[in-house]
Amino acid sequence: MRTLEEAKSYLDYHSPDENSTPKHQAVNQAFQTLIESVWDAIPEGPGKTVAVRAIGVARMQCNSAIANKGN
């Protein structure tokens, strides 16, 4: 981001459209599969919470990249 307008656009809500919706769905399914794959392997405790939250952040960043067309 090189301008204030680019930064403001990045923070805007970008509604999914017919092109981006399948991409968001694929990302969300992949992260659901990841959680299911690692859930039982991660011991209960605060570390598991941190790990699950990190996966959630990664998912949000993927969806943000789709919404912002790679930016």
Structure description:
The protein is mostly helical and 71 residues long. The chain has one domain. The chain is 68% helix and 0% strand. It has 3 helices and no strands. The protein has helices at residues 4-11, 21-38, 46-67. It is elongated and about 45 Å long. The N and C termini lie close together (8 Å).
Summary, kept brief:
This protein starts with a helix and ends with a helix. Helices cover 68% and strands 0% of the residues.
**What's the tally of helices?**
3
Shape: elongated
Q: What is the string of helix and strand elements?
A: HHH
Number of structural units classed as domains: 1
| Overall pLDDT metric | 94
Helix content: 55-70%
Number of E-state strands = 0
Cα-atom radius of gyration:
15 Å
As an assembly, this protein is single chain
Main beta sheet strand tally, sense and closure: none
Could you say which structural class the secondary elements and strand pairing correspond to?
A: mainly alpha
Strand percentage, roughly?
A: under 5%
Which regions are unreliable across 5 or more consecutive residues at pLDDT < 50? none
Euclidean distance between termini CA atoms: 8 Å
